[in-house]
Amino acid sequence: MTNVRQPSEGATLQSATEAELESNEKVAVARQGEHASSVSLSRVRTKKVITVVGARPQFVKAAVISRHLRLLAGDSPFDEMLVHTGQHYDHLMSDVFFQQLEMTPPARNLEVGSTSAAQQLALMIERLDPIFREERPDAVLVYGDTNSTLAAAIVSTRHDIPLVHVEAGERIFRRRDVPEEVNRVLTDHAASLCLTATQRATSYLLREGMSPERVRFVGDPMYDLFMWARTNLERHAAASPKTLGVEPDGYHLATIHRAENTSSREALIPLLEALDRSSLPVLLPVHPRVRDLLRGWRWHPRRNLRLVEPLGYFDFLAALLSCRKVVTDSGGVTREAFFARKPCIVPMEGTWWVEVAEAGWALQTGSDTAALSEALESFTPPNEAPEGLFGDGHSADRIVREIDELLEGTAARDAAWHPHGTFGVLPQARATNFTHRNYRVFLQRFIDAGYEFAPFDKGAELLETGKPFVLLRHDVDLDLHRALRIAEIEADAGVHSTFFLLARTDHYNL
Description:
With 510 residues, the chain is an alpha/beta fold.
């Protein structure tokens, strides 16, 4: 239901010819196609997709994908219904994004507002349930890791509606004070289709035991929008360094909202004080929840921290492109900083976007405010940045194509919940004569007959002696635990064998 204004010629959000991605390890990748105008989508019937959003990063991604759902090839087979949970209830964190990105207003606004995380989640589930029951969509589309994402995932499973998760698979491997990690993991494992922004996220999901049929690398829709918006900034942005009271390249830009940084006064105030001590002004668009906390604590900056109202997408992008450095605990802003080639300081004990840190463009300082202050003065990224970490700017085409293929295939009815495929193709349990006791008897009979169990590299030598021997080999391609049990039995019997871990198994690369 989103309609992004058509930009001027030469700046259009469009697709280019895309080469087929290959992988020697057979990791799941997006199927690449030709130019978007010639992408062949099924038009047997119109498919209803409900998109659930609730926070700034989701509005940004939905602006790109919704446009393609409606307008791709001029004759889309999709009918999208946009539902806003109201998780970001503030006008400057919500309505302004729909206006600036020219998104059609949501068909439903659940208006859950500000409350505890548990209450917010419960309200979302309660209010989404009748919508899904009445509308009976062919699929539910969600983004990222918010409470809105998890609520939609839970309700979709209750109604047997295929769930598509965009930006799946990212992991920080922490749960304490990181509710987003739990949201993302639960949503991934409920999704019929997990669409990843990075190849690393793809590998995480495969190692968690997901079938490659459920996982596709498509790239990051935020990069799609960034590439288009940067060329159309003058036409859309109202803010500039001058209107914000700072000089180009003479200030830092900050965003702070994660629970680990805002859960207490002891966590938040030292962080803000470190920003306030910066030698350059620090521009901080204040999240509504943080704004309310500071009002309650009656805290105000005294030096170089500038608290401003939340900025719309284009205004924030204008501030980002003109700043010196970025300080953020937002995964979305970390990526946007990388897209803009701005050094990024992450005041967290880790980041979902490890690729940016490994490339040298993000520095994690945790709760160490001294390290944060030092990074503001001295952190310098390398002269180069790797290309293609988040795709090529054409992820929306791939996402729409994958949704279409999902709904036309059997996965829409029964996804591949086992690493080796759907339930119907899995081998069914049958009685077997193989037992651990019988295997011990099997080995002992060879030993009693005078056979030597030898490693493969001694085979040629034993052939020359004429002595009877056994070269015992196991190919491990499914269950590592069972293989370990076999190895224990052989060790007890004094038997030497060789185990081959096949490259297609997840544990091979752990």
